[in-house]
Amino acid sequence: MKQLNCFVVCNDTIQAEKTVQQLALSPLVNHIYLLVKKGTEIKLEGCLTLEVDSIQSSETIRKIAEKSDTPYSLIYTKETILEPGQYALERFFHIAESTGSGLVYSDYYQIAGGVRSGLPLIDYQEGSLRDDFNFGSLLFYDAECLKKAVANTNATYRFAGLYNLRLKVSQQAELLHINEYLYAEVESDLRQSGEKQFDYVDPKNRTVQVEMEAACTDHLKKIGGYLAPDFKSIAFDESHFPVEASVIIPIKNRVRTVEDALKSVLIQHTDFKFNLIIVDNYSTDGTSEIIEKYASLDNRVIHVIPGRTDLGIGGCWNAGVDHADCGKFSVQLDSDDVYQDENTLQTIVNAFYEQNCAMVIGSYTMTNFNMETIPPGLIDHQEWTPENGRNNAMRINGLGAPRAFYTPVLRDIKVPNTSYGEDYALGLRISREYQIGRVYESLYLCRRWEDNSDASLDVVKMNGYNLYKDKIRTIELKARKRTPNP
Questions:
Q1: Domain ranges for the chain
Q2: Is the peptide bond before 376 cis (omega within 30 degrees of 0)?
Q3: Are 71 and 4 in contact (CB under 8 A)?
Q4: Topology at the third CATH level for domain 245-481
Q5: Which CATH number, 1.10.3720.10, 3.90.550.10, 3.40.630.10, 3.40.190.170, labels domain 4-190?
Q6: Considering only 192-196, 210-214, 274-278, 344-348, which range has the smallest mean pLDDT?
Q7: Mean pLDDT of the 396-404 span
Q8: What predicted TM-score, i.e. pTM, was given to this entire model?
Q9: Pairwise CA distance, residues 301 & 281, whole Å
């Protein structure tokens, strides 16, 4: 029996012909549909044509659903040549049939710059809500789940159609990862991880993000994970703090940047007392000596060396927040970044009182090491709104910087002792109960250079980071489902 129809994005005849030849070898294939842009004349023998606007649109997904008259539908989303492995389609089919999964995806080989390398993927979990989750480009859908997802979609999306599809399918059945390299594809985006990660906040992608937010919010409502904009109020009446605000810098071996960070704090003009708590995680490159020099000259500088040697960035944050000299508000500064000007700290503290929030997130400007602006420039995360920001936070991989916290709340929640994602975990947890305040003007210069922790990650490291953030979202989603909505 013919088990599947194949849908192949097609903008180039040669690419499509080679891909079609490979797919047609499987006796499982019933029809192969070429997804061509409207007005494009591409015809291949043995193939049918569907005129579409984009693989990402809900109109395209609807057309695919209409032609999904076999048990399974294979969608190939890339415009480059697909090379299925030995009996790959049979493997997808047997696993999909055996497990009743709504979507099956697999590891694959990536061909980049003529080099073939394995690209392992990660398991999908309930909190894998980010729209950039990598399923690879070969998507093997249960056709009934696909058609039901389309039937249950009321919105029309130009950009979020494919994203909405997998959310709707996940409401019905499992999205299953096969830990086998079942195909190869050509990769055309050769940028490093540090460049790709800011695509979603690029202003030119704003319209795309609005649609993604709408699709995710609808999904959260359907599964009981949506939170209405109802927040706990804060009195800010705890008065036992030695200063109003503490800037906290966790640091290890940043001899090239620590002095710039320190100076940008000490020049702050405020109408309140503040200090600078530097948690030095056993630096060995001369960083400690620079901190000591400043601490000896200015009593606002507090040099803390933790009593433990097993601390990540989050653990160092806990050491700073728990310190007796910590102020009412704990304000972040990374050791290789600087504040925009002398008014940053005052602006952040004002925001706490003006917006009655437990956490404030500012905006920052991307720069090179010499603090010259680089694309995409200002990162302001304007997708955050008091009405829906706490829900949209479940979709994106970060909430912005600089971050600041009402210290009693932070002392109660604690910071995860990790060196990646700890700030995101805090943002999700705090937004479950409290308002997060926003400042949309640039407060901070974020330097991109070779020593950034996310500048150039290999696939194993990137998978580990993404898996952790997905797990954070899964935990938070489970908690939100248990949170009664007004």
A1: 4-190, 245-481
A2: yes
A3: yes
A4: Spore Coat Polysaccharide Biosynthesis Protein SpsA; Chain A (3.90.550)
A5: 3.90.550.10
A6: 192-196
A7: 94
A8: 0.91
A9: 16
